[in-house]
From TrEMBL, chain A:
The chain crosses the membrane at residues 12-36, 56-75. Residues 88-188 form the Cytochrome oxidase subunit II copper A binding domain. GO terms for molecular function: copper ion binding; cytochrome-c oxidase activity. The lineage of its organism: Bacteria, Pseudomonadati, Pseudomonadota, Alphaproteobacteria, Rhodobacterales. It comes from Maritimibacter fusiformis. Coiled coil: none annotated. SUPFAM superfamilies: Cupredoxins. This is Cytochrome oxidase subunit II copper A binding domain-containing protein. The keyword Transport does not apply. GO terms for cellular component: membrane. Keywords: Copper, Membrane, Metal-binding, Transmembrane, Transmembrane helix.
Automatic annotation (TrEMBL), chain B:
This is Cytochrome oxidase subunit I profile domain-containing protein. Residues 44-514 form the Cytochrome oxidase subunit I profile domain. Keywords: Electron transport, Membrane, Respiratory chain, Transmembrane, Transmembrane helix, Transport. PANTHER family: CYTOCHROME C OXIDASE SUBUNIT 1. GO terms for biological process: aerobic respiration; electron transport coupled proton transport; respiratory electron transport chain. InterPro entries: Cyt_c_oxase-like_su1_dom (IPR023616), Cyt_c_oxase-like_su1_sf (IPR036927), Cyt_C_Oxase_1 (IPR000883).
């Protein structure tokens, strides 16, 4: 469940709706009732206003904490550090991006084995986004030239053909800047 | 007649919408705002056509360069000559009328001309082939010359235009606001509705001016250095510190992020100032001024350093500590927003609402703004950012925040319109404008966000991959709703009737500006 929430764009969309739908319903109801149905002032005591305000802020702070704390294990820096510390051998891959192609030191990996992507740009700002065969983004990196290599460790779970795309606008053929990664079934 | 009012009167079509027919003694606060607002709508009309042309180029399978031309020109026109200039015009009018100080002399004129000539130069450069998106994507302008994508001349003209725009946004507008607020003598006859810096409506304007000036200054310095080198006034070797891609990206986002936040602080303060004037029981006060000011301070302090969220995905070049800081600060702005939501909602509950087009536009703009705030904080979480950065989600966020702010400013403009021009608007057209704009804006923003969730890249001239075209159709449909609402708005302002000719000003009595 948490994997879906934090590791697919639609999980983010779900969290978005969790915020938006209640706000939209409650706020618009208040506006339309007080504008068109009954515009008379509502007699609310100061103490109930204060109570409402505390509950509202408590809810906002609780959501703040829950959603962010639950996300920590999905931070690439965190799962990369965990993979590096696990003792399992990590395959290092270098990725050099330039207008409008990638130069990767390896493009075929085995499912279940951690891969460390070390990516840099050689000319302008590029992206390095890896897509799951079903079309959702697994991770993306922004590569600003001259800052050294961005890196993270990712472990592919399923065999298949994974698309690579540039997600930072980089000129006239930006939309053609793509490549592929092949993941094969685990040998063991 | 001043230069500004003569110019407005002489512009075809758009001039009629904003020419001054009100009290002549108010010309000193009306003329430049009217010129800025008029110019902003000219830019907007062009930007809408460019916006609609983007899905069309994809559906008709036209050349990618047309798409990238439209992306660059649309984004640039929307963010600066439209939304910022509209905000500048309406905001300055509000400040001048609250403080009783004239908007005359070289400063407002320079702010107007630098913005518009800058916008025109940048547009010329784009038509000459410079396609760098409104985010510049430095060092793309230079790499594009090296790889033969566009000419050095287009880069020089483009950077000159950008410098003009930045001069207005970072220097002239903030200095003008600060001058109005802290210097000069009040003129009794110009005071429309007296307010002090203690009012949330004025406090937000002052905060925004300082944020722009302080957070924008590094970019102004870097951009000026690059421009001097481009003009061969100084050798390129001297500006290596400024042409470093990382330096440019950081100063750009420290500015661009805080520009949006400054505009948000300003517009929220305008909501705080406008809402009380439309309360059904005539209270003319927010339920809590203290809570309103607290929200502005939280927004100010958390937003300044939340810009790190633009760089999470370059780990480890951006250290984790700064990512976490950006994550926490971005979500901190939501706490400010939560207080604002409560203040606005409780004020309406306690005092009831007079549903006129102006305030409804402000409140629907506010609704969009909060909806967009949710999309902003979701993508500011480090984990989500690695799924969403560079997708249509973020294009949708940028677009929605600009649309939301422009909606709120248009609401405030509807409120100021009678005193600005001496004419009143038709309530029925106003209502339809608000309804269509709200539907179009919410629809288009969900289409972008869903496209981003589905992994569709932004600024990407190939929507046919992976079945993304469905989002293109949705964007086009809701974009047309938005365009139609704007047509209704522009008809409304061009058919406004003069006060006095059997027409009474509708917002309270003589329509005070506040
Ligand atoms: Cu690229």
């Amino acid at each position: 469940m948490l994997d879906f929430v934090y590791q697919s764009g639609w999980g983010a969309f779900g969290v978005l709706l969790l915020f938006q739908i209640p706000f939209l319903v409650v706020f618009l109801t208040i506006v339309f009732r007080k504008a068109y149905v009954n515009t008379a002032p509502s007699a609310i005591s100061d103490s109930s206003v204060a109570r409402w305000r505390s509950s509202w802020l408590a809810l906002a702070i609780a959501l703040f904490l829950i959603i962010n704390l639950a996300s920590i294990k999905f931070f690439p820096a965190v799962y990369s550090a965990r993979a590096a510390a696990s003792g399992v051998a990590v395959t290092d891959v270098t990725v050099d991006a330039q207008s409008w192609y990638y130069d990767m030191s390896a493009q075929e990996f085995e499912a279940g084995k951690p891969v460390r992507f070390n990516a840099q740009s050689l000319d302008t700002v590029h992206g390095f986004a890896v897509y799951h065969p079903d079309g959702h983004i697994l991770f993306t990196m922004m590569l600003i030239p001259g800052v050294g290599r961005s890196s993270l460790i990712y472990t592919f779970d399923e065999p298949g053909t994974y698309k690579v795309r540039c997600l930072e606008y980089c000129g006239m053929s930006h939309h053609e800047m793509s490549d592929e990664i092949i993941v094969t079934a685990s040998a063991s | 007649m001043s230069m500004a009012s003569t110019m407005v009167a002489s512009v075809p079509v758009f001039g009629r919408m904003f020419k001054l027919e009100g009290e002549p003694e108010l010309h000193d606060i009306n003329a430049w705002p009217a010129a800025m607002i008029m110019a902003s709508f000219i830019w907007f009309s062009v930007a809408v056509l460019l916006g609609i042309s983007m899905p069309l180029t994809q559906m008709l399978g036209l050349d990618a360069s047309l798409f990238y031309t439209a992306v660059t020109a649309h984004g640039a026109a929307m963010a600066f000559p439209y939304v910022f200039q509209l905000m500048m015009g309406v905001g300055l009018h509000r400040a001048a009328g609250c403080l009783g100080k004239p908007l005359t002399g070289w400063l407002p004129a320079a702010a107007f001309w630098c913005m518009n000539i800058g916008g025109i130069l940048f547009t010329i450069a784009i038509l000459m082939g410079l396609k760098i998106s409104y985010a510049v994507m430095y060092p793309l302008p230079i790499v594009g010359v090296e790889t033969g994508q566009w000419s050095m001349t287009s880069v020089v003209i483009g950077f000159t235009g950008i410098a003009g725009i930045l001069l207005t946004v970072i220097l002239l507008y903030p200095v003008l606001t600060i001058k109005l607020m802290f210097f000069g003598k009040e003129r009794e006859e110009l005071v429309l509705s007296r307010r002090t810096l203690g009012d949330p409506g004025m406090l937000g304007m002052a905060m925004a001016a300082f944020v722009l000036l302080i957070m924008g200054m590094p970019l102004l310095i870097v951009a000026s250095a690059v421009l001097l080198a481009l003009y061969h006034i100084i050798p390129f070797a001297w500006v290596g510190w400024a042409t470093d891609p990382l330096v440019f990206q950081f100063v750009f986002y420290i500015f661009a992020h805080n520009l949006m936040e400054a505009m948000a602080i300003m517009v929220i303060s305008a909501v705080y100032a406008t809402l009380p004037l439309y309360l059904a029981d005539g209270t003319r006060k927010l339920y809590s001024t203290k809570a309103a000011n607290l929200a502005l301070w939280i927004l100010l302090l958390t937003s300044v350093t939340s810009f790190f969220h633009h760089f999470y995905t370059m780990f480890p070049a951006l250290p984790s500590a700064l990512s976490y800081h950006g994550n926490i600060m971005s979500w901190g702005t939501a706490i400010g927003a939560a207080i604002t939501i409560f203040t606005v909602a409780m004020t309406i509950i306690k005092h009831g609402l007079r549903p006129e087009a102006g305030i409804m536009a402000v409140l629907m703009g506010f609704t969009l703004y909060i909806l967009d705030g949710a999309s902003a904080i979701v993508t500011s979480n480090v984990a989500f950012s690695f799924q969403l950065h560079g997708t249509m989600w973020q294009a949708g966020h940028t677009m929605a925040v600009l649309i939301a702010m422009s909606m709120m400013w248009m609401g405030v403009l509807l409120h100021h319109y009678p005193v600005l021009t001496g004419r009143v608007l038709d309530p029925m057209r106003g209502k339809w404008f608000v309804i269509l704009f709200t539907v179009g804006a919410i629809g288009v923003s969900y289409a972008f966000l869903a496209a981003g969730a589905a992994g569709m890249p932004r600024r990407f001239a190939s929507w046919n991959q992976e079945g993304w075209m469905i989002y293109g159709y949705l964007i086009l449909f809701f974009g047309l709703c938005l365009a139609l609402s704007m047509v209704i708005f522009l008809i409304d302002v061009s058919k406004a009737r003069r006060i006095g000719e059997g027409v009474v000003a509708s917002p309270p009595k003589a329509a005070p500006a506040e």
